[in-house]
Design goal:
The protein has 278 residues and is an alpha+beta fold. The protein is built from six helices and 14 strands. The longest helix has 26 residues.
C-alpha cells in the first residue's frame, strides 16, 4: 500500500491532505480539506483511492459530521461514500446536471443552494454558487479565515476546462466576478498550493478568458467559417497538442458564449462556426 499522505495545517481551522492522483489535469493531486477540530467537515473528499480514504479517516475519524463537495467530478467527490458509511456524516453538495465526467454515485439528501450556511461552534462556511466549469459547481467561503475553497473554479498553476453542456463560459466569467464581492484573503484551490493574492488571481483569470475570446473572434474573421478542429489548432496554438481534445471543450464554451450574445452562429450540428457579421 502507498504511503499515507501527509497532513498540512493551513491555519487553526483548516488542514489539507493531497490525494495520490497527480496528473496533467490534477496537478500534484486533489486537495482534501478538513475543517474544524471537534466536529469536522471534509471538503472535497477526493477520488475513491483506499489509502486516501484511510488517511482522511485516520486524521478525522469519528469526528466527521459533514462531507462537502464543490462539484461531482471523479477526482473530487467519489470518496464521499466510504467516508459517509464509516462516519455517518451528512453529504452537502449539488447533484450533477449531466452525465459528462460526473460521479454517478453522488446522492445528497438535498441540493445545496447559493448562500446556504454551515455553522458550527468552530466555523461558518458559506456556499457560493459558481457555475462555469460545470453547472453544479460551488465554492465555499470560510468566513472566520476569509478563505475561499475554490474546487475547480480556480486552480493554482493552470486554467480550468469549461465543459458544456452544463459548463458555461459566460457563467464562468460572471462567477469569477461575483467572487470579488467577498472579502477574500486566500484561495484554497482544488489542485495546487494556496493562492495568497486572490483578487489578482481572479482578475487575471477574467482577463485571460476574454483574451482567449478575442483570439476566437480574430481567427473566425480570418477563416470566415471554421470547424472546431480547425479552430482549436489556431486558438490554442500556445497549448500542447496533446491537450487539444480537452481544449476543444473550452473552445466550444467560448463559442456558445458568443452565440448567447448573438455574435456567432453555428450549423445545426454545432461543429462549424462563423461570426454573425461575416
Amino acid at each position: 500500500m502507498a504511503d499515507i499522505p501527509a497532513v498540512s495545517r493551513l491555519n487553526s481551522r483548516v488542514r489539507r491532505l493531497v490525494a495520490p492522483n497527480p496528473g496533467v489535469m490534477t496537478g500534484p493531486g486533489t486537495n482534501t480539506y478538513l475543517l474544524g477540530t471537534d466536529e469536522i467537515a471534509v471538503l472535497d473528499p477526493g477520488p475513491e483511492i483506499p489509502e486516501h480514504i484511510e488517511a482522511i479517516l485516520r486524521e478525522a475519524g469519528d469526528r466527521i459530521r459533514w462531507i462537502v463537495c464543490t462539484h461531482t467530478h471523479p477526482d473530487h467527490s467519489p470518496a464521499w461514500q466510504a467516508i459517509a458509511e464509516a462516519s455517518g456524516a451528512q453529504l452537502i453538495g449539488a447533484s450533477a446536471g449531466d452525465d459528462m465526467f460526473q460521479d454517478s454515485t453522488f446522492r445528497p439528501a438535498a441540493d445545496v443552494r447559493h448562500d446556504d450556511v454551515l455553522q458550527t461552534p468552530e466555523f461558518t462556511l458559506r456556499a457560493v454558487h459558481t457555475p462555469g466549469h460545470v453547472g453544479n459547481h460551488f465554492c465555499y467561503f470560510l468566513e472566520q479565515e476569509k478563505m475561499l475553497f475554490a474546487g475547480d473554479h480556480i486552480m493554482n498553476g493552470s486554467t480550468v476546462v469549461i465543459i458544456p453542456p452544463s459548463g458555461d463560459m459566460k457563467a464562468y466569467i460572471e462567477s469569477l466576478q461575483l467572487l470579488l464581492q467577498y472579502p477574500l484573503q486566500t484561495i484554497a484551490p482544488g489542485h495546487g498550493e494556496i493562492i495568497e493574492d486572490p483578487v489578482a488571481a481572479v482578475e487575471w483569470l477574467v482577463d485571460h478568458r476574454l483574451q482567449r475570446e478575442s483570439k476566437v473572434i480574430d481567427k473566425l474573421k480570418i477563416l470566415n467559417k471554421a470547424s472546431l478542429e480547425e479552430l482549436v489548432k489556431l486558438v490554442y496554438d500556445d497549448v500542447d497538442k496533446s491537450l487539444h481534445k480537452m481544449a476543444t471543450l473550452s473552445l466550444t464554451a467560448h463559442l456558445l458564449k458568443l452565440k448567447q450574445e448573438s455574435r456567432a452562429r453555428s450549423n445545426e450540428t454545432g461543429d462549424t462556426w462563423e461570426l454573425t457579421g461575416s
